[in-house]
Amino acid sequence: MSTTYSSNNILNAVAAAAKSLEERKEEVNRLNVFPVPDGDTGTNMSLTIQSVVSNAASLPIGATGAEIRKAITTGALMGARGNSGVITSQILRGLCEGAQGAEAFNAATVAAAFAKAVEVAFQAVRKPVEGTILTVLRDAAAAAKNAAEEELETDATLDAIVAEAYASVQRTPDLLPVLKEHGVVDAGGFGLAILFDAFAAALLGRAGTMVDELSFVRGAHPKVEIEQVNDWEGSQYRYCNEFLVDSDSLDREAALEFLGTMGDCELCVGDVPKFKVHVHSDHPDKVLAYFLNHGQISEVFIHNMQMQSAERTEKLAAEEEAERRPVGFVAVAAGEGNAAILRSLGVDVVVSGGQTMNPSTKDLLDAVGAVNAEAVIILPNNSNIIMAANSAAELSDTPCAVVPTKSVPQAFSALFCVDQDASLETNVEEMAAAAAAVKTGEVTWATRDSKDAAGNPIAEGDVIGIADGSIEAVDSTIEGAVLTLLEKMEADEADTCTILAGEGYSDEDLEALVESVEEAYEDLEVDAQRGEQPLYPIVFSVE
Amino acid sequence: MSSAISGNLHVANDVLADLVGNAAMECYGVVGVCAPNAADGIAKILPASRLRRGVVVNSLDEGVHVDLYIIVEYGTNIATVSRNLIDQVSFALKEYARVPLAGVDVHVMDVKVRR
Questions:
Q1: Which domain of life is it from (chain B) (predicted)?
Q2: What is the pLDDT of residues A393-416, one digit of tens each?
Q3: Which of A178, A282, A357, A431 has its Cβ near the most Cβ atoms within 10 Å?
Q4: What distances in angstroms separate CA A74 from CA A18, A42, A52, A392, one per listed residue?
Q5: What is the pLDDT of residues B55-78, one digit of tens each?
Q6: A90 to chain B, closest Cα gap in Å
Q7: What is the pLDDT of residue B78?
Q8: CA–CA separation, A17 vs A32, rounded Å?
Q9: Which of B11, B26, B28, B91 is the best residue to mutate to test the A interface, defined by the most A CB atoms within 10 Å of its own CB?
Q10: What are the φ and ψ backbone dihedral angles of B30, each rounded to 5 degrees?
Q11: What is the rounded CA–CA span in Å between residue A252 and residue A264?
Q12: Do β-strands A538-542 and A439-445 pair in parallel, antiparallel, or remain unpaired?
């Protein structure tokens, strides 16, 4: 039943497909939605398939099927250009692998080859985007499978595949919103359909391809838009120029080179006949003149960056001076890392101190006085300092309150719910509630023999894990103590774990620790930071 | 006449790393992102929620520099895939974060062979 095709027939058909795509590559290019990273899909696919043809052309006459498949695969691999080129090369590899051992060229073998192509092509990407060349391939493969099930003749099978490929191309805008927005179909998918089409036409000895009867690509023009780039800060040039160019003769590379001589931040995207140009330059007149020589310009925006930038700097400086915040913060913490994190969260003054070094009431009072705010909240971050903080709050001239945080991670969570527009009382309430929801674990070494919460003995030098003040873990390693603590603290119920690495705890150890925590608790979002606190290699929280 | 409100936009390096990781996931030929410390020869594909582990973002004076650690599908042209990846990553960073880019280094840590 099945027709026999010589290897020469197949090769000629591939060559015809390449030629057809070469002729239509501009049509495919024009479908690209600008700006995209892979901007010349047609050209890239065409160059890839041409590499296949030239590689296959060097085969001796009468080459075996295996040799031809090898030549096609290698040619595609070596010649792959751009994203679409790599996909094409994988599709061809899949088709060749799937055709392995097939004696005849019929519906069943074609379907098998396509099935393999889908498998191979989809395996090379983690997140396949629907509405692209891959979708078209999958749909074509489904058509091939159908044809095989219905035991169609070879020519009917190929026709079915090509028809489905084009139909699939036309459906791409429904799957990929960006295509619909620009009123185009997917470029890569269209390129692939052209290849199938021309291949089938040549193999079956038909003149003309189906694509001639389709009109959905005509009139598709690349869409280029002005979206203003306000990257004005720090440019040494005065004017930011943005405009569109309509030109048949503009060479993008040459234009970019010219723009480079005019200033910086040069950009020229698009394709014949529409381009978008952006450049920072002191000579907008010369820039415009260059492009006027190549065609028409429109939507010209020229901004004087230095004037606008100066205005903004002045305004910013004026604002900064006057500002006195409604609520300011004083926090106690040990370790540079912790202090830096607290400052980044809005703490005005960080008083150094902690377990072994409790700041005095006076230290805290001085800190409160240094804050430029209507009211001040103190975060003691240690149960031993809460008393001193309370007295400082009483003695302070500015309204002052204490949120009784017992650890640095509690302070982090408390600071996240600050509302500068709310009253001092409301803020204290909210912050205390947030802090209370945080369970803190601390890991350190025992300084003398003792007993843990359950009465088990602890030897000097053991690693001990403290969960909210009570010793819950004794271990020989820091990692072990952390994992035991996590279990005690019901980490499987929590969703965030913040780890603060102490002074002397190496980055490698920290990474290993994070990995084992992640492995033990899949759903836990682990955030590791360098706290640099002394004595406690690890302080962490779960919430 | 400008209705713009002055202020600064800061995008955290971790966010840029996520952006880069996701761009890599959509790049054809890249089957996964892996952690850079796979020196022991075992490159493990990171789950989608931890892509930032495989991306190192450094802020330099001239912009951000990105190191990206990936695993590539066997049979694809590694040079081309890397080139595409760099394009895609630069595009994503410029398009979504508008950060100046100092450079992208792609480290191919492993090749995934089918079955």
A1: Bacteria
A2: 888 888 888 988 888 888 888 888
A3: A431
A4: 16, 20, 7, 77
A5: 999 988 888 999 999 999 988 999
A6: 7
A7: 93
A8: 21
A9: B28
A10: -90, 115
A11: 16
A12: antiparallel
Q: Residue A242 and residue A268: Cα distance in Å, rounded?
A: 10
Residue with tokens 């503009």: A250
Q: What DSSP character marks residue A492?
A: G
How far away is chain A from the Cα of B35, in angstroms, using its nearest Cα?
Answer: 11
> Which amino acid type is present at position A407?
S
- Nearest-by-CA chain A residue for B89: A37
Q: Which of residues 3-62 of B touch A (CB under 8 A)?
A: 4, 6, 22, 25-32, 37, 48, 50
The residue assigned the tokens 């962490």 is: A540
Residues B16-36 pLDDT 10s: 999 999 889 888 899 989 888
Closest Cβ opposite residue A123 in set B37, B80, B114: B114
| C-beta separation of A410 from A541 below 8 A | yes
Sorted by sequence, the CB contacts under 8 Å of residue A283 that are 6+ apart come out as A239, A262, A263
Nearest in space to A517 (alpha carbons), one of A536, A534, A501: A501
| Domains recognised in chain B with CATH numbers | 13-112 (3.30.70.1350)
- pTM score, whole prediction: 0.53
- Name the residue type at position B110: D
Instruction: Give the separation between CA A259 and CA A267, rounded to whole angstroms.
Output: 8
Sheet holding A325-333, edge to edge: A349-352, A325-333, A373-379, A400-402
